[in-house]
Amino acid sequence: MTAPKRRFVLTIEIGADTWKDALRDLRDVVSALEGHVDDPRLFGSCMGSPSVGHIVEVHEDPTMTHERYVEDLEKYLSEGK
Question: Which residues, 6+ apart, have CB-to-CB distance to 81 below 8 Å?
Fold first, then answer.
């Protein structure tokens, strides 16, 4: 069994030449995500420039509830994974 995932999984990969560039891009990504509060599934981004680039993916499993996540997590942990 693989580890369970929450209903929403947000993957952000940022590559940058400097830490400052990475943080600036992260702030830009967060700002863009905040514009999609009502439906984050509509958000996805891929951007590149000479000093920074990112890929952002939002995945939703509409069948995952909090209760099911907790049950699946307890089962996963009891298996010693």
Answer: 1, 3
Q: Can you state the percent helix, strand and coil of the chain, rounding each to 5? A: 40, 25, 35
Whole-angstrom CA distances from 32 to 37, 57, 76 are: 10, 13, 34
Residues contacting 9, CB < 8 A, separation 6+: 58, 59, 60, 61
Contacts of 38-44 with C-beta under 8 Å, sequence gap 24+, read: 40/8, 40/10
Residues 6+ apart with CB under 8 A from 56: 10, 11, 12, 13, 29, 33, 43, 44, 45, 46
pLDDT digits (tens, 9 = 90+) for 45-54: 888 999 999 9
What pTM value is reported for the model?
0.76
Per-residue pLDDT of 55-72, as tens digits, reads 999 899 999 999 999 999
